[in-house]
Amino acid sequence: MKTLQFPLTEDGRVTLTAYIIDTSPEMSNWKQRPAVLVLPGGGYMMTSDREADPVAFHYLSKGFHTFVLRYSVGVHAAFPAPLIDVSRAMALIRNYAEEWHLDDKRVAICGFSAGGHLAASLGTMWHEEQIVQQAGIAPGTNEPNALILGYPVISCADDSEKRLEKMWECAMGEQPYEQMQQQLSCELHVGSHTPPTFLFHTFADNVVPVEHSLLFSQALAKHDIPFELHIYPNGVHGISLANEITSTGRDNLVDRDVAGWVEQSSAWLWRLFGMYATSSAGNKQVDILSRAKLL
């Protein structure tokens, strides 16, 4: 396996870490592998270690090349800066596709909380001309082929959402509130260009209400975008893998039911992408990404 790191800004504060599985004559059926880009949460104030490498290593163990993006946060987080970061990361991944034996038509984004907001933002705004131009990339090179959203922040359309006030302050910066309120509400930008999506949330989340995932799933259904949604009754916000690996010793960060999302999302992604890009089953599944309905 190769571990590589790429700075995406001159000062090195934005980085993309790559975990690339080596090719082997003993696994000759893997001529190309799909990939998962992980976006940790942290309220646009930081990026959580608990939602970074541990998640990437899970998908790595399932046969995916994986990547972790440490995007713009804090005083640098005003939109569209994080969206420019993830667009450049996606373009870089696709630029190395041949060298890394990576299938550039099977690249998923996995984001948590604020990272889920960023993933959903890319899934709904990747095609906008201003984003492509500011990122300095070729059109379409930042398109995600699937979204995996864990307890994502989706909307700031509700003024009463005071629990997320600091996050929105970071995301908006000094820009006009009314204008940014619309731009940052992902459910308003879902369309036929949005990829199939896997969502999980907990009913007990007292930081990002479960309504955020419901809003996004409703928008997906309205536009006939396939999705899978899991809502677990228990589990705190930021639960990550929901097992001992990401528990920090706190019992409320371990929940066997919620931990099921990890295997469920992997299985969903393989069903969507197909196991091998060169097989007939794989080709049939990749056709789903052209917006055909799931059978």
From TrEMBL:
Work out whether the entry's keyword set contains Electron transport. no
Superkingdom is: Bacteria
Tell whether Protease is among the UniProt keywords: no
Record-annotated BD-FAE-like domain positions = 31-220
**Under the GO molecular function aspect, what terms does this record hold?**
hydrolase activity
InterPro entries membership: AB_hydrolase_fold (IPR029058), BD-FAE-like_dom (IPR049492), GDXG_lipolytic_enzyme (IPR050300)
- Which keywords does this chain's UniProt record carry? Hydrolase
Protein name per the record: Alpha/beta hydrolase
Species annotation = Paenibacillus yanchengensis
Highest classification ranks of the organism: Bacteria, Bacillati, Bacillota, Bacilli, Bacillales
